[in-house]
Amino acid sequence: WNQKLGLEVYEKLLGVKPKLALVNEMAYSGGIVEHYIKANYEGLIMEWNNPRSAHPEWLNEWRYFPQKAIGTNVETIPLIWADSIAFQKYQRYAHGEIDLEEYVKYLKNHMGESDRYFPLYSNDVEIFDYRPGRYNTEAKIKGNSEWDRIIDLYLYLNKQNWCEYVFPSQVLNGLNNEKGGRELKLESPAQPIPVKKQEKYNINRWALTGRDDLGINTKCYKIYTSFVENDNKNPNDWKELCYLWSSDFRTHITEKRWKENIEKLDSLLAKYDYCENDIKEKSYSKVEVLEDHKWIIAENNNYKVVLNKNKGLTIQKLVFKKYGKESLLGTLDHGYYDDISLGADYYTGHAIIERPGEHKVTDLGRVNPVVDQNGNRIISIQKLGNYSFNQIVKFEKEKLVFEKNIETDSPEKAIIRPYNFTFNPEAWDIESLFITTYNGGSTPEKFNLKGQNFSHGDIYSSLISARHGFGGTEGTFVIGDIDKTLTFECDMSTSALIPSIIYKEMAGTCFFRLQYSAREIDETLHQQNKPLRMFTKLIIS
After folding, report:
1. How far is residue 311 from each of residues 59, 306, 380, 423, measured CA to CA in Å?
2. Cα–Cα distance, 335 to 26 (Å, whole number)
3. Do strands 67-70 and 76-82 pair parallel, antiparallel, or not at all (unpaired)?
4. Is the pLDDT of residue 278 over 60?
């Protein structure tokens, strides 16, 4: 809908349809390729630098020629490279931070022995002669017009015999060059959704920070779910939803625009009267529940789960019987790994909350849970400092349902990851280990983990709390190997959490963890003047 409606507006305003598309925010996934092909684009423009960093097998020469991006369904589309270093150099020249001689020297460093293509500029243009005032570090506008400096540059380059201008569409002529036309997967397990510029710019920027990215994305998912379930084909409704889901509302935004956005969002939500009561309750399965001073063991014909009352009802073991008697995930005790960097207890199912300069908060306290009389759900409540954790574990015939409500007494700036799952490396075949999830396409994307070592949630700086994550746009996330799969379903209309993983191989084993995040920290995070209320729902099968 976004591409379809966008092309209609483009043609109405300008009288033509574009043949090339610059990937929105240069946030790319294999799943989105199908949408550009369906919209009849002849090529994409996407950044070179970040995909290249995750693909050391690529030749550096490929950056100077068009290639082909491979989509999830193995379809391909011609690809023209943008370059973050190049456009930042251009901005520095326009801002007067470097002079013409220095900038031209940089450009000449990219000359080759034969003709090749190089992107002069591929970013926002409204920034010239204008500063939004978001940062103290913004370059000051000097006396002369930045557009005058840009014009001087273009006039200078136009007179040179070592370069000439070509239109982006002409770059596609290079597909037939011996260094062009290669079919490439831009994504990778370590970088499932490449984004332009430095790693502080990642999908969490639009999913989990801002004023309330989680809240507004969740509302958008509720509206989207209603549209899909009711087969809504009204273009005006879809246009409004595309607008409400646009990236601008999720980063830096004025108070006035924020209030207008919330009013529109709530109005559309009310119009379609989506409410949680419309979701039919599942029929929960009777399970046998045994309890002692430390453990609750719940078992039926399909699974057995052991919960630790001393650690907030974390999962000690989870066995799905069709795959044997081995626990697929649970707790790995301190000392399990020889690697000192992993010298800790690794629990499963708990929340981790981190605040700058403060001690970590987890819901790992001792609880006195209530098992209902039918034995199909367990309720626990914890109060730890400023945080309250209310959790319900429900037992379906073949699924476990976790509902967790997190509340604070007062506003806090924090990283909030409501669920963390540690996998038992002895239960999984490392050679064939993979994950699949949806990142904006109609088909799930598969990532093989063998030989990888990365952590999406590693802190980038004191200001940026994570580097990468998955879109998880259909809410499902699958862990699998050659003979089994384990599926996690996040109800995105309840809380649009973002999944990410930590994966590290060592001699004969691995450390593998899945975490779901509700909030990360970056420079766009705007602390709300109200206590936090967060309800999440996750299903394992």
Report:
1. 50, 12, 11, 17
2. 42
3. antiparallel
4. no
Tokens of 152: 């001087």
How many helices (H) and strands (E) the chain has is answered by 11, 25
Nearest alpha carbon to residue 363 among 318, 413, 307, 412: 307
Q: Residue 94 is encoded by which pair of tokens?
A: 């326009």
Q: How many CA atoms lie within 13 A of 44 on its CB side?
A: 30
Please tell me the distance from the alpha carbon of residue 168 to that of residue 82, in angstroms, as a whole number.
10
Which distant-in-sequence residues (6+ apart) come within 8 Å of 504 by Cβ? 342, 453, 454, 455, 510, 511, 512
Q: Which helix (H) or strand (E) holds 213?
A: helix 213-229
Can you tell me whether residue 401 is helix, strand or coil? strand
Residue 285 DSSP one-character state: P
Tokens representing 486 are 């384990």
Chain-centroid distance, C-alpha 87: 24
DSSP 18: -
Q: Hunting for tokens 């629990």 — which residue is that?
A: 347
Cβ neighbours of residue 107 closer than 8 Å, sequence gap 6 or more: 118, 163
DSSP state, residue 139: P
Q: Is 426 exposed, middle or buried (0-12, 13-18, 19+ CB in 10 A)?
A: exposed
- The count of other CB atoms within 10 Å of the CB of residue 522 is 20
Q: Check whether 96 has a pLDDT greater than 60.
A: yes
d(CA 263, CA 441): 29
The residue with tokens 């899945």 is 514
State what percent of residues in the chain have pLDDT above 70. Answer: 95
Q: How far is CA 211 from CA 74, 102, 343, 357, 496, in A?
A: 37, 40, 36, 21, 15
Rounded mean pLDDT, 225-251: 95
Q: How far apart are CA 538 and CA 351, in angstroms?
A: 13
As to burial, measured by CB atoms within 10 angstroms (0-12 exposed, 13-18 middle, 19+ buried), residue 139 is middle
CA distance 392 to 423: 22
| Torsion angle (degrees, nearest 10) of CA 216, 220, 221, 224 | 180
Q: Which residues contact 75 (CB under 8 A, 6 or more apart)?
A: 33, 34, 37
Cα–Cα nearest to 488, from 498, 500, 473, 478: 478
pLDDT of 512-540, one tens digit each? 999 999 999 888 888 777 788 899 999 99
First-last CA distance in the chain: 32
- Positive or negative torsion for Cα 7, 8, 11, 13: negative
Strand-pair partners of 240: none
Q: Which residues partner with 394 through β-bridges? A: 377, 401
| 3-state secondary structure at position 469 | coil
Instruction: Name the token pair of 485.
Output: 């799969």
Beta strands in 13-153 (DSSP E): 20-22, 43-47, 67-70, 76-82
Amino acid 291 reads E
Helices 100-108 + 146-158 axis angle, to 10: 50
